[in-house]
């Protein structure tokens, strides 16, 4: 038995969206914290916020995480940045590196990921999928740089075959389902065990989470899905169309330009 402080930083995935329980959202970080609690006294602080981008984590979540003095800290953010016209490679890299350095500087073991091909999961056509994938690839380069500099545990979602299974995802295909959250928690748990942070692994069997129904799917589509698609279409529609034309004409590189903010986004 030991005392473990765990701080989770990031966006809606770490917040737990997709894994609904009566009290709200649970998610992979909570599942992992509970598993660590099987052998350790755990102080868990989930600072992740739905919709967060890299700058939010750097300016708002990091100070609270440092105050928690974590032994383990997860840093998983950036996908929301790829879906916005404010995409800025240099700033995103700088802020991710600063955040990772600050967490590592307190002695925290870092938990990070390399992202999968979201466009493939979404089922996007190639001309739209490839520009998005270019941005995801850049994020993965930054997370590889972080892992090379500070070590810790890194899960490569692109190498996990279950990520391409429909059951891994909730209705929006952006957030993991309960099964997906459990899979991610087990991936981190297995690696922590290998490093000597011995604990019982999160269970595979789904339990406690809300069971999806066609009514819940329809409710999400009306209340969340359609408004979200509308916001992203206004913001990224012109950029995606321009990238498709550029690719069709054989010009490159894709995903390298900083796109100006679209009026009314």
UniProtKB/TrEMBL annotation:
Keyword Transcription regulation (UniProt): no
A Pfam family that the UniProt record links to this protein: Lipase_GDSL_2
Lineage top rank: taxon: Bacteria
Residue ranges of every copy of the SGNH hydrolase-type esterase domain listed in the record: 8-182
Keyword line: Hydrolase
GO MF terms, alphabetically ordered: hydrolase activity
PANTHER family named among the record's database cross-references: GDSL-LIKE LIPASE/ACYLHYDROLASE, PUTATIVE (AFU_ORTHOLOGUE AFUA_2G00820)-RELATED, GDSL-LIKE LIPASE_ACYLHYDROLASE, PUTATIVE (AFU_ORTHOLOGUE AFUA_2G00820)-RELATED
Protein's recorded name: SGNH hydrolase
């Amino acid at each position: 038995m030991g005392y473990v402080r765990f701080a989770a930083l990031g966006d809606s995935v770490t917040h737990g969206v997709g894994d609904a329980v009566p009290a709200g959202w649970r998610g992979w970080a909570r599942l992992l914290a509970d598993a660590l609690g099987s052998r350790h006294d755990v102080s868990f602080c989930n600072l992740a916020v739905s919709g967060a981008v890299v700058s939010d984590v750097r300016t708002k979540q990091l100070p609270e995480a440092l105050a928690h003095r974590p032994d383990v800290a997860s840093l998983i953010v950036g996908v929301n940045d790829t879906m916005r016209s404010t995409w800025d490679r240099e700033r995103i890299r700088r802020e991710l590196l600063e955040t990772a350095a600050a967490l590592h500087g307190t002695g925290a073991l870092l938990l990070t990921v390399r992202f999968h091909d979201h466009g493939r999961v979404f089922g996007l056509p190639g001309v739209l999928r490839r520009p998005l994938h270019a941005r995801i690839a850049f994020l993965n380069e930054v997370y590889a740089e972080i892992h090379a500099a500070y070590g810790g545990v890194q899960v490569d979602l692109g190498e996990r075959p279950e990520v391409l299974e429909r059951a891994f995802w909730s209705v929006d295909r952006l957030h993991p389902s309960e099964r997906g959250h459990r899979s991610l928690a087990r991936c981190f748990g297995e690696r922590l065990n290998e490093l000597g942070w011995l604990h019982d692994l999160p269970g595979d069997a789904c339990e406690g989470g809300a069971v999806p129904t066609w009514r819940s799917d329809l409710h999400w589509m009306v209340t969340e899905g359609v408004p979200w698609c509308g916001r992203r279409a206004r913001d990224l529609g012109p950029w995606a169309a321009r990238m498709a034309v550029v690719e069709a004409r054989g010009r490159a590189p894709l995903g390298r330009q900083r796109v100006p903010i679209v009026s009314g986004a």
